[in-house]
């Protein structure tokens, strides 16, 4: 069987063969169910990317306004409270939060489904919070730091001295110039959403790539593990490419470097 699978060949030969087959869209065959790996992997992609998209939207919509308000209200109770919550969020393991959310909102209160993706939007609530909370905390802290640095710049003081409203100073001048670090951390955290889905999907029995990876590792199904890693790596690369393109859109100085 090892000869049939090519496992007795030199590692470099196996690697080269895999790359050639991958370039042709062939990810191999599952050791467990004998199905093409591509079919196994891509049947799970929509569930993972939908969950990651929901978690990303929730994280960004909450974290960026929270970071802006914390910067505006620096050294107030709101600022200190939001940063403490953010610190807890960064420190808290996603799988532990997933278990606590399931225990409280599913098993104790019965408000939301505990597992699966068959209950419409309700199925997304707990998994998206579990994998998005840490990302939300990191984005909020970065937005606050970037806003504080921008607010202290001379051109912001000049804008205020000209009688421009505080709302316009914050959102038109400060926020746009503070976006580069925020966009950077958003890109990194979106990649983290895909990686964080592995344990979270297992806890919530979510039919995505993360759960497939765990099942494949337990079954020693190497081709499926490799296929999942390739797809997740491509997704992470696409996110970083989009972030690089956004730099030019946000900051004209970056755009002028390539003109």
UniProtKB/TrEMBL annotation:
Give the Pfam families listed for this entry. Answer: BPD_transp_1
Q: Which Gene3D superfamilies match?
A: MetI-like
Transmembrane stretches in the record are: 51-72, 84-104, 124-143, 178-204, 224-250
Subcellular location(s) per record? Cell membrane
Q: Which UniProt keywords apply?
A: Cell membrane, Membrane, Transmembrane, Transmembrane helix, Transport
Q: Which GO terms describe its cellular component?
A: plasma membrane
State the coiled-coil residue ranges.
none
Q: How does it sit in the membrane?
A: Multi-pass membrane protein
Per the UniProt entry, what is one GO biological process?
A: transmembrane transport
Ranges where the ABC transmembrane type-1 domain occurs? 45-247
> Superkingdom of the source?
Bacteria
The keyword Nucleus appears for this protein: no
The entry assigns this protein to a family as follows:
Belongs to the binding-protein-dependent transport system permease family.
Q: What is this protein called?
A: ABC transporter, permease protein
């Amino acid at each position: 069987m090892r000869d049939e699978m090519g496992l007795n060949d030199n590692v470099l030969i196996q690697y080269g063969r895999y790359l050639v087959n991958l370039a042709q869209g062939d990810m191999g065959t599952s050791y467990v169910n004998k199905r093409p790996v591509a079919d196994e992997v891509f049947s799970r992609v929509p569930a993972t990317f939908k969950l990651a998209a929901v978690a990303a939207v929730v994280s960004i919509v909450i974290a960026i306004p929270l970071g802006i308000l914390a910067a505006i209200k620096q050294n107030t109770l709101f600022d200190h409270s939001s940063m403490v919550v953010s610190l807890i969020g960064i420190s808290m393991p996603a799988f532990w939060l997933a278990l606590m959310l399931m225990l409280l909102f599913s098993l104790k209160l019965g408000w939301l489904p505990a597992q699966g993706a068959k209950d419409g939007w309700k199925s997304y609530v707990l998994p998206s919070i579990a994998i998005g909370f840490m990302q939300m905390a990191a984005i909020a802290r970065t937005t606050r730091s970037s806003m504080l640095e921008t607010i202290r710049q001379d051109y912001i003081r000049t804008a205020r001295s000209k009688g421009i409203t505080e709302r316009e100073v914050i959102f038109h001048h400060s926020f746009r110039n503070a976006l580069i670090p925020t966009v950077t951390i958003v890109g990194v955290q979106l990649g983290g959403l895909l990686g964080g889905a592995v344990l979270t999907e297992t806890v919530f029995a979510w039919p995505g790539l993360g759960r497939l990876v765990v099942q494949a590792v337990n079954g020693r199904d190497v081709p499926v593990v490799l296929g999942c890693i390739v797809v997740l790596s491509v997704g992470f690369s696409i996110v970083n490419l989009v972030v690089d393109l956004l730099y030019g859109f946000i900051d004209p100085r970056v755009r002028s470097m390539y003109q």
